[in-house]
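Sharing a chain and its predicted structure for anyone who wants a worked example. Both blocks are below, sequence first, tokens second.
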Amino acid sequence: MAIKPQWRTLLSLTFLSLAMMSNVARAESIPIVTGQQWMQSTDEQKKAYLVGISNVIDIERAYAGNTASSNDIAQRFGKGMQGQTLDSVRQGLDGYYAANPTMIQHPVIETLWFQMVVPGLKKNQ
């Protein structure tokens, strides 16, 4: 049974998130990196997390090759983040969690998607 490319990327991002923070947040259930862990991390740790996400997206895009469609999550992620740097994304996430303390338990990858990628897709059409 084949997995759709966008689901494969989302699963890859989830596993990457889990792997990167497994020594920071241990629990009975599978840990998800939240804004709480994000805000407790150093700038270098935050950048490493973002580089990991970027690498997974790059791998997915390379794997899909010419068969990728513009609706694939990796393609959409890349288009939505166009023009961003590690520092601008880090600062954007820092600013979002600082301004929205009630959202601190939300996963970083979810926040990244809805607060940066989706608006970026609208802007970069």
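Comments welcome. The chain has a mean pLDDT of 84.
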